[in-house]
């Protein structure tokens, strides 16, 4: 129902690229130190060895550049990332260079470590992820009136004139339990429109409603609302109205959190 992130969080982390680069450095070192004297054709084996080592090393350099340019160089600040790359290189070298004695145990441990790391990143993404459903631009704001531009995700902008000093999106949400969120479920939403409040937090009479609200259908939301306590994995079915003061020329994103709730976040120009 909700959009998916443009960039996978795993690919946007420099740690992932650094660990992959370390694995290829270890593979290159393993190929470079392989003995070729006992081969039937030592010269040919030696050529293959150095070609393979150069290929692995080139891939490591490319992955290292990805670590800098995809997430951004500013994210590579923690020296532990370099240690993680070094450990990955040592593990890969030992697993490939000493296959008979260390290969299988190290490969098993490496798979367990990769799985644990993946689950850790998944848990972070699950409980900190969010989906932007609209943007609100404040064109002007006085003590009693706001002029807003509402830009729903994937839809045409709408110009609104509303009484009051606070605007609030009207969003119906179906919030799933933590286990379902961890497994990939996201809050279902139905973005119905906008309302407004004055400084005394009293709702005004200039509501805006979409002709075709964004998100799940009204029938589906009503079904969950009527059977909230009987549907496995559902934590809450409710209407969210988060208030935000209209700051002239400000721009705000309306965000639906993975684990429930709606936030209005100021956006930089």
Please summarize what this structure is.
The protein is α+β, with helices and mostly antiparallel strands and 269 residues long. It is 41% helix and 28% strand.
Give an overview in words.
This protein is of the alpha+beta class. The protein has 2 domains: 14-126, no CATH class; 131-266, no CATH class. 41% of the residues lie in helices and 28% in strands. The chain contains 6 helices and 10 strands. It has helices spanning 14-32, 42-69, 79-97, 99-128, 178-182, 218-226; strands spanning 130-141, 145-152, 158-163, 166-176, 188-197, 208-215, 234-240, 244-245, 251-257, 262-266. Strands 3-2-1-9-10 form a 5-stranded antiparallel β-sheet, with no helix packed on it. Strands 4, 5, 6, 7 and 8 form a 5-stranded antiparallel β-sheet that branches. Helix 1 (14-32) runs antiparallel to helix 2 (42-69), helix 1 runs parallel beside helix 3 (79-97) and helix 3 (79-97) runs antiparallel to helix 4 (99-128). The longest helix has 30 residues, at 99-128. It is elongated and about 90 Å long. Residues 1-9 have low confidence and may be disordered.
Key attributes of the depicted protein:
269 residues, alpha+beta, 6 helices, elongated, disordered N terminus
